[in-house]
Amino acid sequence: MTDRAAMVAEWEAHLALGQRRSPHTVRAYTAAAGRLLAGRTIEDWHAAATLDAAGLRSHLAARRQEGLGNASAARELSAIKAFIRFAQGKAGFETKSAPRIRGPRVKKGLPRPVTPDDAANLADGVADLGADSWIGARDRAVLLLLYGAGLRIAEALALTGADVPLGETVSVTGKGSKQRIVPVLPVVREAVDAYIRKCPFPPERDRPIFRGEKGGPLNAGMVRKAMAQVRDLLGLPASATPHALRHSFATHLLGAGTDLRSLQELLGHASLGSTQIYTKVDAATLLDSYRNAHPRERD
Asked: pTM for the complete prediction?
């Protein structure tokens, strides 16, 4: 029989070493599993694997009585479901499925854009921190595709040798296999060209142009890691992620007068409602600028 401390330790090792999750995620998911095991009569992997929806609701209700908010409760539920699926694997279950239980409704927050100067500094910063010059050029090119063309990180990493050299536009396949044409700024083209020249792996028509250190396709996690290092050096908040660069692209275009329909096409949103959130972002940015500039706000 496996005791609870050993179960939590094995779960932690799986997250950190097996899945290479971030330290923050490892801490949060490990703590959630520890609370679940401590609050119930679960002594082995089979008991954890067979926890039903009623037991899960009971645990979450107790947590809510402790003052857990909607967002935290949703994260707790996600962590516990992942732990239960892991337990099912340890118990030898062929089909892994956590109990069906709907989490609390969480209000979607506004994206937090970075300034144009911060976006440029982030791109230049990853170039300076690259282990080799070609890796720095690679990371800079990826970030400029996110900010300069509004691509999702997966869309940037999916570009192949057939797409280079980039022209004034590039065809991108987004969510739902929906294709769109995106304009490419000269600075973005130059950054991608510079990376291609330095990369030790020649571009191949049917393979991604962005390569990892050993030549395989570049993992998005490596881009996030590089940006996090530069973000810390620049003193930027944790919200300054690669996806925030896409938000910034949209917010800055809207602020410059781009209409919502055009912005929807550029971003590849299926519905206009997804794009309309940027009107709130722009209003929030304008309000921040007002508060920082108005003499009454500084008194």
From this structure: 0.55
